[in-house]
Amino acid sequence: MTVLRRRTLRALAVAMATAPLLLAAACSHASDSTSSSTTDTGKAAATLPKTLVFSPLSLAPPALKGLSEGVKGMASAQGWEVIVQDPNFDATKQIQQLNEVISSGRAGAAWILAVAPKSMGDLIKTAQSKGVPLLVNGQPAEYGFSGPQPGITFDYIDYTAGGKALGEQLGKCMTEKSGGTGKALYVASQEGTAGKAEFDKAAADAFKAAAPGATLVQTIVAVDRAKAQTDIGNALQGNPDLSAVFSANDEGALGALGAFNAAGKKLNCVTDFGGNDEVLKDVKDGKIYASVALQFSDDTAQSFNTLVKMQADPKANGEVLVVPQKTFTAGS
């Protein structure tokens, strides 16, 4: 998996543990189906079981295993049965498993982290024909659609918004601490990371707009914290007056702190996209200026509530949800 996907799934697993408290009112939506039992929608809603099928990428990574346990706890608290599947990163196996449970009539709704979104077309048609609502990760275009679809809700991360917030925060920090001048380093995620192109562009554009007098001197790629620290240390040798870093992931931000400490240099400004517990503690302590953090607990609440509502009216268009983001600073 990519760096960003691994980090995202770790955060999801943590968030899911507290999700039941956020979803106490979720099942109140289950009674919103039409009062006419003669309509197609009414018949579908009446016959759908309160059974949620959860199909992650795999159960092998501990984060995904933890996420599945969180889903079971959350849905069970609302009176739902949960079927957890394990495609083990195999797109064909994932579709076969989902087809079996949806076609058999056992599924009342499905929550899918798709291994290969573009391969899901026939499965989506099957679910729509059965009136079984789906919630899938990503945007409609990733599945070959141009917008919302009957019985399908899409849930995605707005990488453009995240990159923009990251760049703006670094520019703000450099304006406050060095009059908007100085040299900055960008730590990017690996090639193939979801949303990389739009995130990188938005971050660079926002930084330039927020601190036009500052200079972006180099970009490196963070594979993990140790390598990021080594690479940033090397960048410091070539740019000894480097004073600011903005990172597309937690590994890069934490690696930057380590590199500057090891070199005995002051890092005036560092901003981060991710917001794991260690990063947020460093924000609180003033070591990191800002972290743009994905709010997976809030996303879990909106996702489950949406599935419940969709089950009451499975022929209606689903929604296009966005994972909420929040910027943390020392004063927030």
UniProtKB/TrEMBL annotation:
Domain Periplasmic binding protein: 67-310
SUPFAM superfamilies in alphabetical order: Periplasmic binding protein-like I
Compartment list: Cell envelope
Residues making up the signal peptide according to the UniProt record: 1-30
InterPro entries: Peripla_BP_I, SBP_2_dom
Pfam hit, one: Peripla_BP_4
Signal keyword on record: yes
Keyword entries, A-Z: Signal
Highest taxon in the source lineage: Bacteria
CDD domains for the chain: PBP1_ABC_sugar_binding-like (cd01536)
Family to which the UniProt record says this protein belongs: Belongs to the bacterial solute-binding protein 2 family.
Protein name: Periplasmic binding protein domain-containing protein
Species assigned in the record: Paractinoplanes durhamensis
Taxon lineage: Bacteria, Bacillati, Actinomycetota, Actinomycetes, Micromonosporales
